[in-house]
Amino acid sequence: MALPIYLYGQPVLRKVAEEIDKEYPKLKELVASMFDTMYESEGVGLAAPQIGLSIRLLVIDTTVLADDFPECEGFKRVMINANIVECNNEEVSLEEGCLSLPGIHEKVSRPTLIRVRYMDENFVKHEEIVQGFNARAVQHEYDHLEGKLFIDYISTIRKQLIKSKLNSIIKGNMRCSYRTKVVGK
Fold first, then answer.
1. The pTM of the whole model exceeds 0.90
2. CATH code, residues 5-181
């Protein structure tokens, strides 16, 4: 079942999320709902804070981008209590967007390779080296767990240029093709 996406201005998007354990209630249903929400919103990643839950859970499926980014073929993950433990020094700047920031796209520079530790939906531990666009997607969603948004990485001038768009999101004066939850509503 698709859930509403919490938009910019919601306090949950700025909180550091809490770890969970295998006793977390209805985890399988939550993971399924997060994938449903992500697909219905035409996203490639979704973190629990984006649906109003301050827990360290994210889902990613970049497979749809495999034509442009071959490393995305078959990259579908559930990451619980993820921790990025290493990044390389090589960075690439690409345009990013976010379901919580509809209509805003900005270039963000990120490392091209990361090492991430996490547990899957069955609480099996994984340590994985992730590269290319997948590394970007994991970092973007991981930032949500840390209370960060991709706009935190852009210049002060770029932030000024998008300020009116951000204010429109806060006020609910924008259109989305997916269900949303704006501040105060």
1. yes
2. 3.90.45.10
